[in-house]
Amino acid sequence: MIKRFVQKELSLVLCFTYPHFVRWLKDTSIITSIDFDLLKLLLHLFEPLEEITRAISSATNATVCLVLPFLTVILNLLELDSTKIDTMRPAMLEQMKKWFSNAFSNKYYLLGTILDPRFKQFTFAQLNLFQQNGTVRKTLQKWKAYEAMTLAEKHLNDEFIKLTTPMFSATTTNSSSLSTPLSSSSVLSQLITRQRSSTSSELTEYLAENELRQQTCPLVWWGQNKSRFPTIAKIARKYLCVPATSTPSERVFSISGIITSDRRSRLSPDCVNSAIFLNKNSQFED
Hints:
Blueprint: H1 2-7, H2 9-17, H3 19-22, H4 30-33, H5 36-56, H6 67-77, H7 88-100, H8 107-114, H9 134-142, H10 148-176, H11 187-208, H12 218-225, H13 230-239, H14 247-259, H15 269-281
Helix pairs in contact: 5-6, 8-10, 10-11, 12-13, 14-15
InterPro entries: HATC_C_dom, RNaseH-like_sf
GO molecular function, one term: protein dimerization activity
Organism: Didymodactylos carnosus
């Protein structure tokens, strides 16, 4: 509704100042009560929040990797330089602190972020990006956001070791069971050393690559690059899975509420189900 008011600002102003229209208004204070500057400010704040909510509520994409980047976006939005939202801003910031103060130390958020090739270098949480925003800088510093990449690399390395250690242990056990002792220059010892070197270089190579564009789908990217990073791809498959969410079912109830209005009270259940089915599947129409 706010967006429509802002889009129709000129039309509304002309309408409210038109003499013949004003004459029919019971309360002329409505003309001066609409603060379009405030509406534009609220739109600037709420529109990105709507996009973030829709992205996080997705049932077809990985979303755990979006939490930390979106937190920094929201904090930046709350740094708007305006006295008109001075009451709302502290309240929103307090709620952010209440729910997300430990987000940058959460293992799953950190692994999800570093396993996303778009955000793995945590460029969204670098200190030099917030030199002008004192509140944001202090909040992120308190949340230990600037040390998040180091902690994420540690978690990724731990997961990497869990997957690779059994392979090395089995190989070492088999080699020790041989009746003839193997020297350090033996073929098997060289093979073990080469395997360890290749796995560690896999992790180093992945972290050294530049971040990708925001439009890149991490699931598609991992499907295309799992042969290059086989071990990390297994970790990504574990932590970048699409989470279970109640959002789609809630949307169905919302749609059914719109369809079954008071003027459509005689619709049969089968007809309502068919209307909901067509609404939810219209995107697949040829």
